[in-house]
Every structure is written in C-alpha cells, then in structure tokens.
Amino acid sequence: MNHSADDVNPSYQMSLTDPDAWEITLKVGVMNEERHWQAQIEVRHLGTDQLVFLESDPHLDETRVMYRLEARLAQFQKLLAEYITPF
User: Fold this and answer.
1) Closest CA to 61 of 87, 36, 26
2) Domain-by-domain residue ranges, the chain?
3) Phi and psi of 26, rounded to 5°?
C-alpha cells in the first residue's frame, strides 16, 4: 500500500527547524524475489543545506543488512558527538 505525504498526519512528520541540526537519512530498498537489499545514507547540515556525506551500498547480503546499517549509524553517532554541545 502506498501513501502520499498528504495522507500522513502533519503532527507525525519529522520537523527539524534548528539551523545547527544534522539530518541523517537512511533509505533501504528490498527486492524480495532476489532477496537483494540496497541502502543509502545521507548526512546533511540543515543550517547550510550542505550535503556532508553520501554513501550508497547497492548490494547488501540479507544476512548482514542490520549489522552493516547499525555499524554505520554508530560511526555517525560518534562523529556527530564531536559537534554536538550540551544544552
């Protein structure tokens, strides 16, 4: 089932308004018949709208998908922790 953005309640949509925010977008694609996975991770600084990092992995083995994605997100968490200051 496909839904358009109009079908989503606006209160549930993520909104990052702080110009110092970093947005990490993870896209995962699955082709079920071939048991083939793809992933793309994008990191953008919202204040400048600068694309800081883009990585695409077009061929992921299904047995290692979660390991690969969790490892990459952990790396971003460490990296961004250097730029984030306490409130």
Assistant:
1) 36
2) 5-81
3) -115, 125
Q: How far apart are CA 76 and CA 7, in angstroms?
A: 31
Chain segment 16-67, per-residue pLDDT in tens? 567 777 788 888 888 877 778 888 888 888 888 899 888 888 888 878 888 8
Report the C-alpha gap between 37 and 31 in whole angstroms.
6
C-alpha torsion 26→27→28→31, nearest 10: -170
pTM score, whole prediction = 0.60
Distance between CA atoms of 87 and 76, rounded to whole angstroms?
20
- Please state, in angstroms and rounded to a whole number, the distance separating the CA atoms of residues 42 and 49: 12
Tokens coding 22: 């970093």
